[in-house]
Amino acid sequence: MNTLELLGHPVRLRVVHAMRGGRLLTTSELCERIPDVSKATLYRHIDLLAGGGVLEVADERRVRGAVERRYRLRQEQAVIDADTLSREDYRRGFAIAMATLLAEFNAYLDREEADPAADLVGFRQHAVWLSPDELLELIGDLRAAIAPRLANQATSGRARYLLSPVLFPAETSSADD
């Protein structure tokens, strides 16, 4: 299974999101973090991610006669090479990303303690006109703001947020320039 196929499923993508930040989690802990997905389904997808090298067993211990495994995300394996994608791959990948985002957002709203205003939930769409140089500058600015935070580890003082920037040309260049 190639990386797009492996990561190209909303449940598997949600597992990857949950594992980020250096977390070591058991399957049971992942079930607690993704409660809207059945345990059997989650176990199956974790097995696929482990078999595909995206997750690795960090340690094992015996619990009531069974072996409990804690998994770690192999960050370098959880990347899709955009240079190898076809238009259909982009279409499929975008649909999966949006389905995952919707599932994560619904799971958030389904929590009893969810308070979108207090949690500073936000989503916006802006149409901006950019030259090729301005586009590259914007992308650089966004990367500079986001990239250092991707290395943050999960701690008791931090909450996990899902940030999903989407950028694409909404129309071709205007001849009126």
Please describe the structure with a list of short key phrases separated by commas or semicolons.
177 residues, alpha+beta, Arc Repressor Mutant, subunit A, three-stranded antiparallel beta sheet
What order do the helices and strands come in, and which of them pair?
Elements: H1 3-7, H2 10-19, E1 24-26, H3 27-33, H4 39-51, E2 55-63, E3 66-73, H5 87-110, H6 132-150
Antiparallel strand pairs: 1-3, 2-3
Helix pairs in contact: 2-5, 3-4
Structure in words:
With 177 residues, this protein is α+β, with helices and mostly antiparallel strands. It has a domain at 3-119: Winged helix-like DNA-binding domain superfamily/Winged helix DNA-binding domain (Arc Repressor Mutant, subunit A, Orthogonal Bundle). It is built from six helices and three strands. It has helices spanning 3-7, 10-19, 27-33, 39-51, 87-110, 132-150, and strands at 24-26, 55-63, 66-73. A three-stranded antiparallel sheet has the order 1-3-2. The radius of gyration is 19 Å and the shape is globular. The mean pLDDT is 91.
* Share of helical residues: 40-55%
What structural class should be given to the helix and strand makeup?
Answer: alpha+beta
The CATH class assignment of the domain at 3-119 is Mainly Alpha
Backbone CA Rg: 19 Å
CATH topology type of the domain at 3-119: Arc Repressor Mutant, subunit A
Brief overview:
The protein is built from six helices and three strands. It is α+β, with helices and mostly antiparallel strands and 177 residues long. The model has no long low-confidence stretch (mean pLDDT 91).
